[in-house]
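Narrative of accomplishments. A recurring question from our advisory board has been how the design workflow behaves on a single, concrete structure rather than in aggregate. To address it, we present the structure tokens for one chain from the evaluation set, followed by the sequence designed for it. No filtering or post-editing was applied between the two.
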């Protein structure tokens, strides 16, 4: 019976390692030779703060591994936007981080303070990401929803913004919406997925511009990094 259970190799490395061509080549050679059925890959520190160079090598490494081995690659603990980018580039799937962090870097947990517990995160497909909202005074959530529109998923429909941000509503809202987004992306021809996501990024820029009273340009500068990486992959 155990022989019928797929065996996945779990791999954890730092993103900076992939900037070294020799390490990257060795990484691909070693792990592509493993007698496994697929790969679960956690690359730290991949987040919205990752620069375009590191992000490109991350995307390139994972897609190359899957292409050469013809085995599924699943990216561990990445933001929804980066995850959708990876799927558009060809990998099989991704998982997001914990409710608190999108990276598994140990020091983030060591440095956690009560300030983190003041916030919940709410996923906005229109912004391609989650936004931190103060639990006690979720005025920011109302301002964004009033501009972009309220979500009609099973866990938001008919609820006030005060109830929407409460757990588990916000988490179930995320799961329903991200599943819809993945399904929509996978329904598109593989050759058109990156172009589709590039259009989504342009729409996210436009939506952030509608919310200039709430967000600074630095709050969504990561979108430009995503765009430059996807454009390079799309050549």
């Amino acid at each position: 019976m155990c022989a019928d259970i797929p065996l996945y190799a779990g791999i954890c490395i730092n993103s900076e390692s992939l900037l070294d061509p020799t390490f990257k080549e060795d990484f691909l050679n070693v792990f592509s030779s493993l007698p496994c059925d697929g790969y679960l890959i956690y690359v730290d520190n991949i987040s919205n703060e990752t620069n375009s160079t590191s992000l490109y090598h991350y995307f390139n490494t994972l897609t190359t591994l899957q292409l050469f081995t013809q085995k599924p690659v699943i990216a561990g603990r990445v933001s929804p936007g980066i995850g959708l980018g990876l799927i558009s580039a060809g990998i099989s799937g991704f998982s997001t981080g914990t409710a608190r962090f999108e990276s598994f870097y140990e020091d983030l947990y060591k440095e956690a303070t009560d300030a983190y517990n003041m916030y919940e995160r709410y996923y906005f497909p229109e912004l391609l990401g989650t936004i931190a909202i103060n639990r006690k005074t979720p005025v920011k959530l109302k301002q964004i929803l009033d501009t972009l529109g309220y979500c009609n998923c099973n866990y938001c429909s008919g609820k006030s913004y005060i109830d929407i941000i409460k757990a588990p509503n916000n988490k179930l809202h995320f799961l329903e919406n991200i599943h819809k987004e993945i399904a929509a992306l996978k329904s598109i021809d593989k050759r058109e997925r990156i172009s589709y996501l590039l259009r989504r990024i342009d729409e996210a820029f436009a939506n952030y511009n509608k919310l200039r009273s709430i967000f600074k340009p630095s709050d969504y500068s990561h979108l430009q990094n995503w765009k430059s990486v996807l454009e390079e992959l799309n050549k």
